[in-house]
Amino acid sequence: MTKLTIQEILDEKEAGLDLELLSGAVGLSKTVSVPRIQKLGLALAGYTDSLHPERVQIIGSTELSFLKMMPEDKAIGVLRSLCSNNLSCLIVTKNQQVPDYIIELSEVGGTPLLRTKHLSSNFIALLTRFLEERLLPTSTLHGVLVDVLGLGVLLQGKSGVGKSECALELILRGYRLVADDIIKVRFKLPAVVFGEGMDLLNYHMEIRGLGILNIKHLFGVAAIRERKKIDLVIELVKWEDGKEYDRLGVDEKTFSLHGVDLPFARIPVAPGRNISTIVEVAARNQLLKEMGYHSAREFQELLEKRMAAAAHLHSHSIIGEDLE
Question: Is the full-model pTM beyond 0.85?
Fold first, then answer.
């Protein structure tokens, strides 16, 4: 399970969280493993059955106003009881002034207390987006990911089958490289899988005989992109004489990635076959399918109608139309 420490959340700069540490530095090694957050309102009122200590706990204007209405000794008792549940952290929003007793309880209990300038609603949206990005399942796989006609096409196959060469020809046609060799795959809600390159390999491609090429430098920024939703998986396999390959395309095949079933095709590679053209046509065909047009099934339905009509005419020619 992917986890983030509170220190990593505090150090995050690109997400715009704008967090500062007020107290409880000893607890910065605590971790968060779920992208959902929780506001402490009900827990402060005594309803602790739904308290989830592993979530980030938000203290907004309403919660602070509620605490100010309590006698201080009672508020201290409530917060001490909550902190005893080993809360991951507390985050105060809107740059509000935090009572000294909250800072002291945070320091004594080892519960990180942070503060942000954002309103609660805005901060919750920012933090949820960040946690979803960082905590949802990730993996790596071998292949090449290319943006073809707006579709993320993942090319897979054994080493040396021609994945990178196919991708290079697609780039020469104006399409864009996302990642070559090692692809970081990230699941994103509700049921989407994204692919991106590893930091060291970004924008680079290996072509046997030429070595490592920097696609960004060779073709410009228009030939690359940092990440792309994976829409289609194509496996390149070496042609084997006598082996049956799909010739109709009626049956839909899928490839499961992080529980998401993606359209899948297996393309045999042989001398004389222009694989990059076939991959481009596969992408165009997938776009048509997403628009509700399935050419293989339409052809099958047309063929079945012709066969039924021919059988009907044949039966009439033998039996006769006036037979009672």
Answer: no
